[in-house]
Amino acid sequence: MDANDELPTNGTPFTRAEAPGLGYSPGQLNGKQIEHVSRSIYRPPDWQFNLREAARALSAASPGGWISHGTAARIHGLVLPPWLSDSNELHLSKPRELPQLRRKGITPHNVSTRPGEVEFIEEMWISTRARTWLDLARVLPLRDLICLGDQLIRIPRPEFEGRSDPFTTLKKLRGMVESHKNLQGIVRARQALELMRVGADSPPETLMRLAMADANLPEPALQLKLWDGRNSPSADAGYRPQRIALQYDGAHHLDEIQRRKDQHRDKAFRSAGWTVLTFTESDLNDGFRDAVRRIKTALRQSLVDPTVASGFASGN
Q1: What is the pLDDT of residue 255?
Q2: Closest listed residue to residue 70, CA positions, set 94, 100, 91, 101
Q3: pLDDT of residue 248
Q4: Consecutive 10-residue runs of the chain (316 residues): their mean pLDDT?
Q5: What pLDDT score was predicted for residue 316?
Q6: How are the residues of the chain apportioned to helix, strand and coil, as percentages rounded to the nearest 5?
Q7: What is the pLDDT of residue 313?
Q8: Looking at residue 261, what is its pLDDT?
Q9: What is the pLDDT of residue 68?
Q10: Which domains, from first to last, does the chain contain?
Q11: What torsion do the CA atoms of 169, 172, 175, 180 make, to the nearest 10 degrees?
Q12: Which one, of 144, 239, 234, 156, lies nearest residue 196 by Cα?
């Protein structure tokens, strides 16, 4: 086989070591049809960039290294701020004792890790979600780091996500932080841990809660059920004593089926004597300033509402 022979049908980047198994000849690797991306990494001529495929090839060509930082976060499917979520930058970490990586188009890191912070999934070595959160403490603003952390500790819904356990817990994150006391960003990671809460199902819900804290509002309960029971309607946040339910309806709530579910949910709360405040993307865009004003008004009104007063007296 030489450079002019028909190329194999493999459509993703590959390493020199993988080439024979895929049907590539040495002549083809040295020819003009195959692009030499970086040391020992090649790609077919018609390949369209795919972060996961690029990261897999990089991992395969980097013994001792692992995909990390923003690249790992995107592959893990974590919700990131816009300036990072669209980045195709490739990050690769190696242990501190190994030489600094020098590869074209790759952002290298030399870091210390503990057992369990790197895993092998989808044919690549990659930092775990928890370790990725810690690595990003160096670059993410505090609010974004809290949003990322809330994603990791939230309780999933098995019927929608196929899992019942969170990705990690506050206790485990605290333990990891304490085992990396000299890591860059560790102070911000500690600050984030104090402000993270189980129960925020999306970054906007976290940002709404943080805006309420900034306004010195009482901290709300999260995923607040109307009554005990599996089928109870629930609010994203709220105050049970004052019977105030707070809902953040994101873009998926524009779906007609979801809208009917939301209407049924809110009707159940209102029928039970609750005030329901619904917030949307416009509130997110203004930093929840108007939302805070509406919540303050509802809290003030609850103090003079006789039905709420009787609820306090009866313990309901």
Answers
A1: 66
A2: 91
A3: 96
A4: 62 91 85 84 90 96 95 96 91 89 86 96 97 98 98 91 93 97 95 97 96 97 93 95 94 68 93 96 96 97 65 41
A5: 42
A6: 45, 15, 40
A7: 38
A8: 87
A9: 98
A10: 1-48 (no CATH), 50-195 (no CATH), 203-314 (3.40.960.10)
A11: -90
A12: 144
Question: How far is the C-alpha of 174 from the C-alpha of 156, rounded, in Å?
Answer: 21
Residue 153 CA neighbour count, 13 Å, CB half: 22
Crossing angle (nearest 10°) for helices 289-304 and 306-314: 70
**Coil, strand or helix: which one is 257?**
helix
**What predicted TM-score, i.e. pTM, was given to this entire model?**
0.89
**Cα-based torsion angle of the residue sequence 255, 261, 264, 266 in order, rounded to the nearest 10 degrees:** -70
- In the block, which residue shows the tokens 């994603």? 151
Query: Which secondary-structure segment (H or E) carries 93?
Result: strand 90-95
Q: Which residues pair with 244 in a beta bridge?
A: 239, 275
What is d(CA 26, CA 16) in angstroms, rounded to the nearest whole number? Answer: 9
Start-to-end CA distance of the chain, whole Å, equals 80
- For 152, other C-beta atoms within 10 Å of its C-beta total 21
What is the pLDDT, as a whole number, of residue 252?
59
Q: d(Cα 86, Cα 96) in Å, to the nearest integer?
A: 29
Q: 31: which 2 tokens? A: 């020819």
Tokens of 230: 């599996």
C-alpha to C-alpha distance for 32 and 45, rounded to whole angstroms: 9
| CA Rg value for the chain | 25
